[in-house]
């Protein structure tokens, strides 16, 4: 069933039946799959929305193609575009949205089993979702390290570098560096130090072990809610196909994506996630608590 704005009343019925299911005894383990669409209302552009998406607006960084900004081999040669973007995206100036606070409510009601997120903005943590419930499948800006020797780099120094727009370099004397040499300000030859990169999963890098370790737990899912993602990037996107037949799958997104809607009892709610989440909270009788949770962020 695909319910868009024009069938709002039908959508209302679906949200009412979803709320009833969530309050039933059979719905114990809720799993989430989150993408950049849940942070657009916080002022962070998503990647692929036409016009507003990041990939439509990176032309000014003169990249060979937009995704290059998150490619490890391109970053090794040209770290500048990523660090220009990092300055705009760096956590600290963005506030969680109602949708992030809804995730926190699911946890406080002991319904949240695991929140798989592709987002690197750490807004789930900022909203108060317990860290143990969050799998940041594409890493985050929370920590950083040298890409050569993997030595962690100081948080305060990183914040300063990103703010100044300078490129942080490894300070580990034992680091072999990039293998290239360069002349320092005294004209002496010295090894070029390794680049520091936030622990964000770039194209060409593997996803964190905790992502792979969490995949088998999807068989315990009674409800999977997919929000704000185009389900373009694998292996993350494949999670939606791994839940068992008896698990109810719900899409909350501006557009239909992936195979959501193909299973008989899938529920597809097209629209802005904050609005749909608010309707769902109302049906659940959580509207006050949602508002309070959000005001506390
Ligand atoms: N409410 C609901 N859906 C929204 C909203 C909103 N307010 N804003 C945007 N969307 C939808 C878009 O329609 C789109 O389907 O969210 C989705 C965002 O898709 P992408 O921009 O592709 O973001 P995402 O799916 O998170 O990208 C996945 O791609 O570049 C890599 O690693 C990066 O994690 C990222 C991955």
TrEMBL record:
A GO cellular-component term linked to this record: mitochondrion
Record flagged with keyword Cell division: no
Binding-site positions, Zn(2+): 146, 149, 170, 175
Record has Transferase as a keyword: yes
UniProt enzyme class: transferase
Protein name according to UniProt: NAD-dependent protein deacetylase
Residue intervals of the Deacetylase sirtuin-type domain: 8-287
Keywords (A to Z) from UniProt: Metal-binding, Mitochondrion, NAD, Transferase, Zinc
Cofactors demanded by this protein: Zn(2+)
Family as reported in the entry's similarity comment: Belongs to the sirtuin family. Class I subfamily.
Record GO terms (molecular function): histone deacetylase activity, NAD-dependent; NAD+ binding; zinc ion binding
Subcellular location, record wording: Mitochondrion
Known catalytic reactions: N(6)-acetyl-L-lysyl-[protein] + NAD(+) + H2O = 2''-O-acetyl-ADP-D-ribose + nicotinamide + L-lysyl-[protein]
Binding site for NAD(+): 36-40, 46-48, 118-121, 229-230, 253-255, 273
EC numbers for this chain: 2.3.1.286
Note describing how the cofactor binds: Binds 1 zinc ion per subunit.
Active site: 138 (proton acceptor)
Primary localisation category: mitochondrion
């Amino acid at each position: 069933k695909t319910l868009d704005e024009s069938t709002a009343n039908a959508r209302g019925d679906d949200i009412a039946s979803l709320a009833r299911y969530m309050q039933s005894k059979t719905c114990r383990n809720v799993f989430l799959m989150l993408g950049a669409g849940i942070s657009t209302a916080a002022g962070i552009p998503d990647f692929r929305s036409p016009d507003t998406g990041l990939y439509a607006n990176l032309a000014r960084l003169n990249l060979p193609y937009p995704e290059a900004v998150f490619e490890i081999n391109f970053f090794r040669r040209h770290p500048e575009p990523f660090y220009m973007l990092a300055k705009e995206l760096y956590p600290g100036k963005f506030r969680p949205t109602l949708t992030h606070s809804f995730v926190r409510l699911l946890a406080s009601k002991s319904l949240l089993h695991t929140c798989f997120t592709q987002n690197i903005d750490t807004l789930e943590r900022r909203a108060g979702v317990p860290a143990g419930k969050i799998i940041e499948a594409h890493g985050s800006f929370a920590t950083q390290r040298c890409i050569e020797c993997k030595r962690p780099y100081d948080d305060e120094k990183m914040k300063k570098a990103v703010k100044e727009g300078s490129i942080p370099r490894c300070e580990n004397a034992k680091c072999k560096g990039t293998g290239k040499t360069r002349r320092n300000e005294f004209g002496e030859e010295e090894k070029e130090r390794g680049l520091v990169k936030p622990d964000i999963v770039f194209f060409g890098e593997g996803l964190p072990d905790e992502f792979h370790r969490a995949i088998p737990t999807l068989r315990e899912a009674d409800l999977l809610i997919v929000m704000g993602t185009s389900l373009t990037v694998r292996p993350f996107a494949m999670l939606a196909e791994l839940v068992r037949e008896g698990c109810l799958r719900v899409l909350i997104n501006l557009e239909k994506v992936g195979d959501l809607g193909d299973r008989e009892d899938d529920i597809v709610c097209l629209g802005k996630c904050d609005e749909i989440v608010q309707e769902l909270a109302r049906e659940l009788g959580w509207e006050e608590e949602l508002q309070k949770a959000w005001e506390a962020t």
